[in-house]
Write a structure and sequence with these properties.
alpha/beta, Rossmann fold, two-stranded antiparallel sheet, about 30% helix, about 25% strand, globular, binds S-adenosyl-L-homocysteine, transferase, protein-L-isoaspartate (D-aspartate) O-methyltransferase activity, Protein-L-isoaspartate O-methyltransferase, EC 2.1.1.77, methyltransferase
Length: about 210
């Protein structure tokens, strides 16, 4: 669990690259400069951890590309103390970014192996989400709703109605929407029934699966 000057140097280069690619939110960039991404990956990927790439993690899943993490985090416009729901904890890296932005993070993962790993890893790194949950993200977390914002980190063939229902008025749902490729989609809740839709181009994610382990 070592984080060295060399890792910090590589993180600074990654942040520079993300700026060049158009990420402007200083809080998001500061979080990426701080979080040791190499500790969220298998040690065999350590040398590549600060490339702007997705990598395989356990259970056939992937840690999202840093640009994607930054892009989604920037769209959320997290304020300190916001209640944020993440669907797809995966490696826990996005969870860590949200935590560094000051959010009270609730995160759901359907792969037990990943749920168990992050339950151990995150506290070790001083990252304390409010709630890590093993279950089906399509359902959200009705007992903890409503949320200031919701981020889905897997490709969703539908926009789960439960997630829309668990969003506060004025809140944002950021979700890669689509079957094979996904369009990064943001819904802003205007009132009980009205949602404003914004689209931000194509991304590629592992699929958001129904719970049938
Ligand atoms: N934020 C993660 C992304 C991991 S990939 C990271 O950067 O590491 C997407 C994750 O979503 C996978 O771990 C996958 O198991 C999870 N997932 C897929 N369908 C899900 C569902 N219905 N509910 C909760 N998690 C789900």
């Amino acid at each position: 669990m070592k984080d060295t000057n060399k890792h910090q140097g590589l993180r600074n280069q990654l942040v520079k690259l993300l700026r060049e690619k158009g990420i402007t939110d200083e809080n998001v960039l500061a979080a990426i400069a701080k979080i040791p991404r190499h500790l969220f990956l298998d040690s065999s990927f350590e040398d590549f951890a600060y490339q702007d790439k997705a990598f395989p993690i356990a259970a056939g899943q992937t840690i999202s590309q840093p640009y994607t993490v930054a892009f989604q985090s920037q769209l959320l416009q997290v304020n300190k103390e916001d209640k944020v729901l993440e669907i797809g904890t995966g490696s826990g890296y996005q969870t860590a970014v949200l935590y560094h932005l000051g959010a009270k993070v609730y995160s759901v993962e359907r792969q037990n192996e990943l749920f168990k790993q992050t339950s151990v890893l995150l506290p070790k790194l001083g990252i304390r989400p409010k709630h890590l949950s093993f279950g089906d993200g399509y359902k959200g977390l009705p007992n903890h709703a409503p949320f200031d914002s919701i981020i889905v980190t897997a490709g969703a063939p539908i926009i789960p109605p439960a997630l829309m229902a668990q969003l506060k008025i004025g809140g944002r749902l950021v979700i890669p929407f689509g079957d094979k490729n996904q369009i990064m989609t943001m819904l802003i809740r205007k009132d009980e029934t009205k949602f404003e839709k914004h689209e931000f181009g194509e991304f590629r994610f592992v699929p958001l699966l129904e719970n049938k382990n």
